[in-house]
Amino acid sequence: MANWVLKGLRTGVKSSAYPRRLDDAPGISPGRPTSTHLKSAIAADELVARCPTNAIARENNGITIDQGQCVHCFRCRRDIEEQASWQMGYEWATGASEANAALHKLGTMFGRSLHVRFVDAGACGACMSEARQINNPYYNMHRLGFFITPTPRSADILLVAGPVSDAMRLPLRKTYEAIPTPKRVVAIGACAASGGVFGPSFAAFGGAAEIIPVDVVVPGCPPPPLAILHGLLVAVQRKPPSAVVSATRGATTEPA
Amino acid sequence: MTMLEHTDEHVTRLGGLLVQFRKRWNAELAMTCDDAARLCRAECGSHQLSDICEWLIRDLDFAFATLVVEQRPHIGWLLIYFFYKDEKSPWVRVEVELGRSVSVVPSLVSLMHGPSFDWHEREVEDLFGLHFEGHPRLGEFILHEDWPEGINPMREDFDSRKRFEPRAPVPKWDPPTIVTASGAFAMPIGPVFADFAESALFLLESVGEDVIRTIPRFFYKYRGIEKIAEGQEVDRALLLAERFSGIGAFAHGLAFCQAAEAICGATPPPRALALRTAFAELERLRSHAAAITGICNSTALAVATSQAALIEESLLRLSCEVTGHRYLFGAIVPGGVACDLQATDCHHVVQVVTEIGRDLRNLLQMLRYSSSFLDRLEEVGIVTEDEARSYGLVGPIARASGVARDIRKLFPYAVYGSIDFSIPVEQEGDGYARLRVLFAEALQSTTIIGRVLSSLPEGAVRMDHVRFRAGAALAAVEAPLGAAFHWLRLDDDGKVIRYRVTPPSFTNWHGFHLAAEKFAFQDFPIILASFGLSNAECDR
Asked: What ipTM is given for this predicted complex?
């Protein structure tokens, strides 16, 4: 066992400086397209036509991006003369509806430490893998006071990934209901935000907000670990959200 | 061995197989052979199906790969059973045509190696509504109990974009239990887990310490990608192929593209094939590092978990630096790859991967001398070679049980045919054997990446234009978790008519109960980790 201790000590501190400082190590984020001004409306239309998930909309001679729909396919970036401009970074989390914020008002008691419960509602594995990475030595969410809890009864935050498959709608709802209020829901990934490439369809919903109220959305396919950390920090108001998106998907339609 | 000799040998072998077929079945079967595709095709009636499959498995030692079912408008049903064997043998494709009114097919589960057909038949019964006569447990499989009876989503008249009606949930799942001793209980684990784990439910039957029977339940994550893909353009369906299992995105995208290329007879340029090999190995390396992290974590060996997680994260960052995406999304396109590597990139990749090889060797060395770690893995979660063959297991799990099957050798794709590498095999079939296979394959991946990137051919990385046309093809790829079979049928406009994926996790989850039974409760998470499978991949 002693050699493991030595090995650990020799490895030294690997943790990211985020959120104290912005981390810009290469490869921590794939980046994402942003609103772009282009030379002509034709170039903009070309980008709109290329986007397979309707994330791009034309606005005059430029484009705007619905980040919740973007699945990082790079088709607005590769093999095209007039590309969408690309934004690196990872502070992507957005607050969802104002109504939800009022419903689950969090006091300062949430400022320090809180427990996270994770539900996989049909995620592809990449979001899961990125969520798992926030536990690894580089990102280490424990240093920020976030812990994974084995029971919903002691959880404060529900982390959801996936478009919510038909069979997961009930486990997701039950987990949400088992968490005592006040609570926050952080939906990670394009699937949980909008259904991604899967939903809505016969087998999956169009995101977590169709089943439970969502407070914070972290777009990305998958969102990199620091974006998920940013989402958790936004949920407890320790970081400002990147923008407020309107709550288009409201209450659930399913009978209880 | 040169490529030419290789081909000659195949031709004679193919002829030999044809002779054997003729000798055994006379003129009862319509047989054709395609030397270029290494494929033997036999058409038979449903009354001959059992006999032919039995003969292939018992006398010729073939293994079942996958079952593809197609519903053809106004004609009826087409069932295609694919068999494979070794690097010298071709694919054998047994086709059965049924009329529209037929809804009963003979089940093959009672044959030798019958378990390998089991889940395929259950899936078809659930999704198409074809009944397999003689199958002992059909019913609720992919579609859970609150799915309306009699609605089969893969049938042609089912609209995939139609949302299901809101309906009251029926949370009752009550599978028959077999343990009746006093004090017997069934402990459910899942579908929501305590940690970052994928949704699935395991019902463990026990009378105390030992797990006597495991009843797993999957398809909580069924997103119906095979149905959604129907009617889509190849480019759009590629997104589904990549994203149904994010951790095997490149391998599945590659299989999908290979199927599309086989249909339209496209051959990507040499540089693209070499880069595909490098990316596929990069993904394998990362996936195996993640599996090793999981195994260390399940035994609560904190420092080793951190060390393996550091390796995994370095590989994620490396993938992002050279392809733009941490999970290689968007790197593959029909007719090539989407991103080229500059000489400096290649140098950087080789350098990082070599360092990671060294770290992996150090980690393995330390793990081998940690007795508390080995105690948890050795002789735990055993899958014997007979069981592995009977269930048709694939990938590192099968290779840890002495089944040396690897698609990269059996049906070389990309540039695997010209690379010299061996298949690591272990015999014990326990958790430690699986760990050793993972390490050996990860180290081998580092070598393959180094070799491919140091002699990258010059030229374009993708074809200018790939013109899709009508046709169907099966593509096989060795994904990180094992053999993946993608069947694709396109129409004249290049739209998907039928897409069927048999991912390695689907095959291997079926054999999971073999390993989990007979062992104590506390071994369960370790056996689970040593399988390292993906539910997203299995559920589709």
From this structure: 0.86
